[in-house]
Amino acid sequence: EVQLVESGGGMVQPGGSLRLSCAASGFNFSSYDMSWVRQAPGKGPEWVSAIWFGGGRTYYADSVKGRFTVSRDNAKNTLYLQMNSLKPEDSALYHCARVIGLGYKNYDYWGQGTQVTVSS
Question: What local confidence, expressed as pLDDT, does residue 12 receive?
Fold first, then answer.
């Protein structure tokens, strides 16, 4: 059974940092591209970042470029998202998702999410 379990969310002041983790199990993690997707209340899902299966390439939404860094440790079956210089508009439920098909915005599994709240 494919499982994706996110952790590391919380409440932080504007300008602060958080590091999200996603523990993957039930599939060959190192064979799949992975993405982070977020959803704020009342809004649709927003793709945030993606990383190739080997970690060699990364991609970011313009809204987070230069502030967020995606990485992975295939030996630990874990995906990460380092978030710096956080803004109130970054507040959302953050999900990791397994990418399928071409590109990095089609998913077949994603986790329950971890809440990030940026507020003073």
Answer: 98
